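Team,

Forwarding the record for the chain on the shared tracking sheet. I've put the sequence and predicted structure together so nobody has to dig through attachments.
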Amino acid sequence: MMTSNVEDEDNGILYLHHVTTETPIKSGYRVKLNVDGSDIQLTRNDQISMWTPYKSLEISESTKARVTLKTGHTVVGVSFKKAESTVNINIRDAIRQFLLSMHAEISISEKTTFHQEPAIVTVSFRSPPNSELVRSTLQNLQESMYEFRRIMGDSTQKHLDTVIKYGVAFSELDPRSKTAFSVLSATFELLKQQKERDQMVSGLIRQLHRVLPFADGALKDTTEDNTDILRKAIGKLYILATDVAEFSCEYVKRNRFKRLAKSMISTQDQDKVNELIGGLNEVVEDFSWAVNVEMLKAVRSIEEKVLLYKLQPIHTGYRLDRCCMEGTRVDVVGDIVEWASRSSGGDSSSDINTSNVYWLYGTPGIGKTAVAHSICARLHKKGILGGTFFCRRDDPDLSDPRSVLPTLVFNLAEMWEPYRKLVADKLRKDPKLTRHSADNELFSQLLEALESHPPHPIVMVIDALDECDSTHGRRTVLSNLFDACSRVNWLRIIVTCRPASDIERCFKRFDGLYLAKDLVTDAKAHEDIHFFARSKLADVASECGLPPEWPGKEKLEEIVDRSGGLFIFVETLARLLEVGLDPDQYLAQALSVGTGSAVERLYNLYNMAIRSQIGQNKEEFRSAMGTIIVVGKYRPLRDKSVAQITGLRPNIVTTLVNKLGSLLYRDAGTNGGIRVRHLSVIDFLTVSTTSEDLRVDTKRANRNVGMACLKIMTQELRFNICGIESSFTSNEDTADLQSRIDQNMSDALQYSCLHWSGHLSHITDAQEGEVEAALEEFTRNPRLLYWIEALSVMGKAPVGDSVLRRIPLCLKSSQVSIEKRTDDAVKFLLAFREPIMRSAPHIYISGLAFVPIDTDLWKDTSALFKNLLVVERGGMKSWPARPSTLRGHKSAVKSVACSPDGRYIASGSYDKTIRIWDLEVGTAVGEPLKGDAIIQTVKYSPDGLHLISGSNDMTVQIWNAETGAAVGGPLKGHTDFITSVDYSPDGHYIASGSCDKSIRIWDVETGAPVGEPLRGHTATIKSIAYSPDGRRIISSSDDATIRRWDAETGAPVGEPLNEHTNSIWSVAYSPDGCRIISGSIDKTLRIWDAETGAAMGDPLEGHNGSVTCVACSPDGRRIISGSMDNTIRIWNATSGAGVGKPLEGHDAWISSVA
């Protein structure tokens, strides 16, 4: 604390920056920093053994600091491998060295002994950022004081010289706020000399006694990085310091020849003193207000930014190196930027422009993404770029449409404070909101709620929307963007993409509300691509030592014509020519192959580029490319990892990637992961028209990668893979854990642990036996535990259960032993989730010791770990059973549906609510979804993001499955109860059946009915279902028939199926779409050929009551049925025989199964 007593003054002029060490051991030790008796929280940089204070740390000459190096730990008073060494840091030397050198940063090193060997501890200090304004203000003060040096006594002059000299040094060290106190301190010293001779200034001095410690204390509570939050109070204090100094010097000058004890005090001087004292009083008040208000603002601002990270934004900005070549696409970019920059025309909603969305589209390779990057660069320069999202099909984050809006919300919130406050406030008040609630809750509604509008347009750019992997998600994004633009007049949206059919349909819904441009129609496209080709070929000529005019005007024109306007054609050709031994030969070959459309010519170029480089190594090429393509869904892999997974030698992979540099590149942003240069390369390699010797079968590639992952894990996983010495240290506190992971777990192993089941779920029947044998081997022994340990150290333990849940998709027939061990592992992960996440050793210490002894997991592994704890009492005899009954509805449950990932169940009830249940723990998730009438039927959307329900109020309602919010209004059109609903497999449409004897089809995005109702049944529609390919709809009725319909035209297909003798309450398709299953009031089930409509075999008999509901298992091997006899039965789908005993337990009839 700075006080008026100079001798005790604590001149804080340095900040402790960081501590570094040079020790005989490189890891496994800790550093402790103690300052003035308090331990300081440090953050560590493992790579360079550096520790940095968590907050800015001001030090002064009186500060006492020491650094301690420690290893080992203590358990119940017993030390293990413990060593400790402490050094004291000479702060006075640091400050003295700093004042002499005036360098921005200085270091003090102290030698010590650690682990009986020499060690060095170095502490670095730095000055706060300095302002020239500080220097100029002090200079003014010095000039005023220096003018009167000769009138002072010797001792005073000597002191003044010191103040002047020290003041200059201080101006180099302190930020503006702290310098103000240096000035006041210097002034005070001058006035203290004067006080002994003149009582007039005593009031001023007393006030200085009050202000100095108060103001200094206020700033002590503010970190060095945040001093500007008190800028208004500091500004006043700054001016006041100079005024006091100037007055005191003038006063001394005027009274130097008078007897000061008897001098008369002029009225003018008295007024000035009173004015200065009043100013000091105001400073005290200003600091009090500033600390309370400004600090509160700072804390709130930090909190807002923290809250925004709940949105989990994806960092995807534009890049200057991906912009259009200078001189190309000038008009297109300029026109769009001019459109985006136009004035919003005022704040009134009546001024909302009808074309605030711009759609730029075109064929693959035409240069849409380059144009998008160029537009972003121009908008950023103008200060109106509000957010970007560059979609990419081979990136899991950038291909997820659910990430688009949260990222744009985050971008806009960071850019514009009023919106940030609204978003943060919404997230603060509703903790249940997540990133997937960003559509209406955080985007459109909050934009409309803004009280102030930006003074200029704000533009958001979404590139390659077609590369998001969900058509439903793409349409949701577009709908929300249009909705936002309909609410505010200052928002502009630019979307680029291929003209995919679903995107075209969505834009047509908003006809008249957007501008559109097909890049193919760009008037200057030919001129631009001519310029681009000329420039690229000039680079080739320079690189290959060819004449500058190469390849000549004729060839240049032929290249431009053959490109068909696709910049990627020219780009690929230029890259190919650069790596060829004879560019003329390659060019002649490229211009001689194939004709057709622009895309076909591009594919011909790809074909030629590949064949010219790989020679006879086609098998190696397909293996490497298949791996590169399928792993891109998760993350691109480096050369060595691709080699390990494919079994190819690393040099072969490296050579392939180098030779195919026209099509592939190593992405620095993913540590050298291999990517395709353009996604049209993947399209070419996977399309059926590509010749078989080059074509990549993605199903086979996934199978191969999955099998390789199992092999890598089998070979490399082991107990305590990272060599963690003690269970007393958590994963988080293991300082060098990441370096241990890198040293002990290959990149291929890390990838395998996360994604093996994702790849294996793509297997085909022909591959079944080999995969099952590999899974049997992997799950039989302790490798499952070693795999869980690997997930723990990588910080990925929470994904373990979802990885294991995919195993049934990897099996084409039931494998009891694999399924039992997998189920054990899932339950183990769930039961011991916390200790597994926190500490890898506790998988064995706290987890395995408590595994029920009758499980396969215990039998397979316990004998291998001899030192496990012995649980005498309280251990589990078996895994905790999942709750067998879900209770919460207040009336009968009419319908149930499973989420696509199998984690949740939705139930609709006579109590007019829908409840969502966590299947694993058996508890309700969130509050019930409340309807206005009895809920007759519920169904999940294919992506699991939405639910639909049909009810007795004759409407269909769409719900957000995560937030429970209704999406849009109810779909109205039926004239009686809704009995059944279903989503089309692509999520575009909803079908509903009703007691009004009709079926209606609805567009999910618009909510509008599609075509006329499907009529033909003569009684209530009881059940409907889409075929797996979306081409057909089936329906059953109280008229005892099943009808098939063309889903696109609504026309009936074939004759009604009428083998049942009574009302048919339920129908379902088999997963392959080849069979129809039905359940009837006649107490039987029937299986039908979906194409011919013929009954297959005899009815399935066994129920003693009406069959009310049927469903087929995801693998198609089982049929389940519910009945009015209060039982559920399971049937073999092939033979029709019953499987096991009926499932009993309900005390009323079964209304729905899933």
